[in-house]
Amino acid sequence: MSAKLAFCAGLNHSQFLFLHSPYLRRMNEQPTYFDIVAKTQFGLEELLATELRAIGATDIELLTRAVKYQGDKSVLYRSNLCLRTALKVLVPFASFYAHHENQLYRRVRQIDWEQYLTTEQTFAIDATTNSEIFHHSKFTALKMKDAIVDQFRDKYGIRPSVDTNNPDLRINIHVHDKLVTLSLDSSGATLDRRGYRLDRTEAPMNEVLAAGIVMLSGWDMQSDLLDPMCGSGTFGIEAAMLAANIAPGRLRVFGFERWKDFDATLWRNIKADAERAERPVTAKIWSSDLDPEAIEVSQKNARRAGVEGMIDFQLGDFLESLPHSARGTILLNPPYGERLQWEEDIIAFYKEIGNRLKHHYAGHTAWIISANAEALKFVGLRPSRKIKLFNGALECRLQKFEMFAGSKGGAKTEHGFNGLDTD
Known about the structure:
The chain is an alpha/beta fold. The protein folds into two domains: 3-185, VC0802-like; 207-244 and 282-415, Vaccinia Virus protein VP39 (Rossmann fold). Helices cover 30% and strands 24% of the residues. The protein is built from twelve helices and 16 strands. The strands form two sheets. Strands 1, 2, 3, 4, 5, 6, 7, 8 and 9 form a nine-stranded mixed sheet that branches. The chain is elongated, with a radius of gyration of 25 Å.
């Protein structure tokens, strides 16, 4: 009996959907196309699909907070290295129905885990559940862990260890109702952890969300880009990396680098190709903040990202600023109000943002993201576009405001666009 037939023994069609993608069946053969799922944040799915087309993915299907597609090993590696709006890249390899925890245990234990893991290696399990049967993700992960280690212990008398921080193999289990899907996590740590932001201010923006907002803004990478409340500098850094075509994962180590079938030569070639594709930046990128510590943190992060020379960091108050040129894109992530004591404070603050934009930034386009929907109303400008996003657990609105040149209170050319309002 073949390994696959032996594995499937005792499973009827309703219980067994698929086992071992072509990628996993052919670990020692020429890579072929297989299913891949890239997870992202809500609202960034279409951006991610566009990125995937650019790296050669096929059969692209948009899901909620994810995109499913097909690719070979090269596409898998590029997905981790090059995608700016992906959080995880998963390779599904088994799917089945389980009606109770013991059935889940048995199904998982039937898989030949030696294909992916040795007794000397470590592993970790990430579980997500949306099921009336499997209520708790941690308990689901524990049952799966027991099934894996029991298989090794029964066969060899020893078992692989669990390492939740830096495992050799990270496995994802997703349960929807009774349907269980197992995937190998090719990314390891989430892809928003680029490796450059070791210093951060309070409540920094996720790198994937920041990159997504830069891309949603439609910035042409030629005109000015301003991040006047820069915090940790994430908007400016992600914009500079995009303009320079710097791979967002170039400082990273990925989970697939520890897989049994890891192709080191292919990986070196892909990284070399990405490095050769980098380009000079001609746009001016400005990052400023009221807080001197934020400027210092942003500069350190930009230095680690390799883009410090592409960003002009300035200490200053946006509410007293003037533009540096006649047109540009402004990205604003103002406080949402959680740390302001009085509601009128945050409303007054958003009013001042709107007044500064209206009276001094004609010819510019501003994008403001905020979780405070009420405060956004007091910007006093009509948004031309609204996009629902999430900053962490907070539901936000990203709103676009266009300040047309020649409107009342346009930018004051007598100040020479020096970035400082001297009124």
